[in-house]
């Protein structure tokens, strides 16, 4: 199969549909992004890589970064993390506060905002935000094997100024004792890692350890155990697209994590990591054209964790 | 790998824990089941099969049967089915009515009770309950290649007499126009297919088409398309264990469907179908020892859709 | 104050607005009612009575009848009734099922549908529906001192045929053990008392015992104790208009109970009972013009339980 | 009737039960209060006053102060206030955030925390917190005709340090645009007015204008219109005790507002204002002995807005 031809075909077919969907506008800095962008990158475990469109242009990772902070926090807290955050799909939008009240401050999973804020609190433990942010950035550069990856300070500040809902979530969990550090510090970490700027190519490389059973064969690094990689993939499958996770599993059939910046990272265990980017979002806050691109790639390649 | 030795070892280790958990008691006939039972069966796509314990004793399939009725209903209604039932994890217990109110009578997915009742309504379409039940039974016998499979009339009647919550769910959806036939008829079909009695060995064989890309290689029958098999597997993964689906994906890593009779069917795409049975349930209504058995099998074999 | 002139003025002013609002259409028989109707009746404790418009035309009491069944059920079960139904505003629409799940089958109050169905179950206790319906009818005729009051069999049947939501509520509570009789029998009683046909004049007279501290001075009958009358009035105030009860208290300031037939009964303790009827409903399912009429009457007369 | 003898009798009977209930402990400064305290004061419109127990000892008004801030905010914003806060019972605990999500940042009523925070935002409008707090203090001193009333700075600070849930509520509403000032400023006002320290005697006098149709006959001041007083009383009746408002109306039958400091203000329109204080709270967060005291007073005097 000619994968390069495939990504080019997908890019060509979907390029015309980038005007559908709606750019996230609640973060002012994100609202400025050019909706016509479309990038695709596939990084194979065997070293081959394929890309099309705006695959080398950095975009705001936003919630896609939660995959990396979860990996880091599990390294710090181990399985004890699961006493502070659940592993179930929430059945609710990404920023819902309802379940937090019913479940007394314990978020459903680490990929909804509340859960990722708990993860940030774990990473922060005992340190200053600046150090924790440094740790996250170093980890992402390490897994992507690319020291040029950076955090966009304008986006970080843009979120800080308008993130009332996240401030509410964090204070709410603090009221239940499930946030241990001052809320401003925890959100400082959270807003900064959401502001990671990465290109499709960088993102696909950064996710490769999840396709490789915890190991990045390109660098030879054993990032995490095979079991942990397997479990993070499971969480991405069941919880990676908020209340559209079931639909993504149904249509694409791969573990994936989306962000409101329009990026999606998808994992093909034993084969590849795929990153797509298109800023227009669908009604559930996931990249509209990005989802379609992954659906096409999965169908054409037959890469699905649910197929023989 | 010696799979037969494995299933025997799993059986040996877990046999002593069958007293944990709690037999479903809201269906009087199920409450009579011997809690000490433990059966395991693995049916490989290559024809090999392995079993241990009470693998040949029929038990009440209950919600596991929803996998087969969904397959049948998709054959009847095609993708139009999805206008009447969703594809998202519910985040709520199997018999919750809350989301039905918020989402105006459209159940979250076909595996919670409300969704399976809609599926029964689709199978019923235009026929009498007796015919619809006959269709379901014929279909299950066909996929399992076993004409001795039957419906337990005592269990069916036992559910009919006590199923007030299901009567409530069906009437509630009827109020929104999402049940088209008289509620008694629809529930007649639903209660009867839940009362299917199957052994682990029969169940594993019946599920083999989902491991085989829609095709049962033992009989040579093409049951459904590869794409449909893939999608049913995706639904089992995200929704097959009610509000513990995320945890099952995390711990076992295979598409699975559980029933309150204590059975679980799990699919290893491209390899095998596995059936386990142990009547004691955990707090979320899934077989306690059955879940542990699948976790052990998945770990020892490395069979996980999330691993390389 | 010339109360007769007032009711005529209110009738004259509001007659032109009866085309606003929407007649309840989920009960086919109710949908046939002439929206232009407007009746008002005030029955004073001193025997004087005032009326205007269609005050002598019987309409379907619907939920207004719940005031009388509650009175009857309290006579049967006494304060023990409150272990099966709460006394709090529900904050939800009249037919909501959500709280029933969270509160395990115990309805918030006796005026939402679920609560009134429990009340019907209490009245039924040990009898046949026909007898229970007879008891209710006798009680209403007794308090209204009018043996011509009847139940409209067409309306009762109309509800029976379409009342899926009520069937759902009743079965749901039965699943929790809070309905003791077969659901069909309980709903038989419920649908029939909702089908009571009464004119404004009859309804105002029937409610007089609640204004008179439990005693109807016109007939000299001591219907209930002063304390019980006071408490039923309190329930009407906090729960009588579903999720618009607060607004009714704010605007009218009198205990009141509305029905989807367009009737409202309001109580002026120590002074009078008022009945209004206009079939067009507002967004919350209460008579639009009827509410306005009561607001005008309360403002002009100064009759408010919240004023000196 | 000898009202002084009555309050003494009530005090004597209930004094022994002050060990029941639980002092609010989430505000550290409140947790230090002596649970054995019990104060009662009745201020008649005719000038007579009656008191027993610790009626002259100041306690933390907490949510009782919301009656006064609502009065003040209505004076500022008029009926336009109701576009930012509802008038319905919430059916939920005082600090619930669930309905805020469903109802897009508009609190159910001005007496739950979220609603009172909106009220504080209205009072703040354009000013500094210090000025707004000064306005509130002046208003309370004016209606109580007592310049010694003060705000307890330790309590105010104690709330500020631990009020994570209120910070969450305020930020959540700000996310929906229903808080116009910086959250810290709004909560500064809110925490300070909750820290008002008043004795039962002061509180009863301060509430007298609500019994007097908006006018305090002792001072001759016309505080608000009769209609506004009537409406505030209605809100106290339906919403003054959070999700136990229905029960309070049922048992006591008077408009009332409780606070977690253990105080309750009750209004007898046309007759008197009553204040009780006992720090032990019941399961719903209202003064346990205070509620019982009001129930006894209402029963013995026959003062109920629901009686003739």
Structural class by secondary-structure content of chain A: alpha+beta
- Helices of chain A, by number, come to 14
Strand content of chain A: 5-15%
Rg of Cα set of chain A: 18 Å
Tell me the distance between the termini of chain A.
18 Å
Note the quaternary state here.
homotetramer
Uncertain stretches of chain A: none
What pattern of helices and strands is seen along the backbone of chain A? HHEEEHHHHEHHHEHHEEHHEEEH
Greatest chain-chain interface?
A-B, 43 and 43 residues
Quantity of strands of chain A, as a count: 10
Lateral strand order in the biggest sheet of chain A: 2-1-10-9-8
Q: Biggest sheet of chain A, open or closed, and with what strands and sense?
A: 5 strands, antiparallel
CATH architecture of the largest domain in chain A: 3-Layer(aba) Sandwich
Tell me, rounded to a whole number, the average pLDDT of chain A: 94
Helical content band of chain A: 40-55%
CATH class annotation of the largest domain in chain A: Alpha Beta
- Overall geometry of chain A: globular
Gist?
Chain A is an alpha+beta fold and 308 residues long.
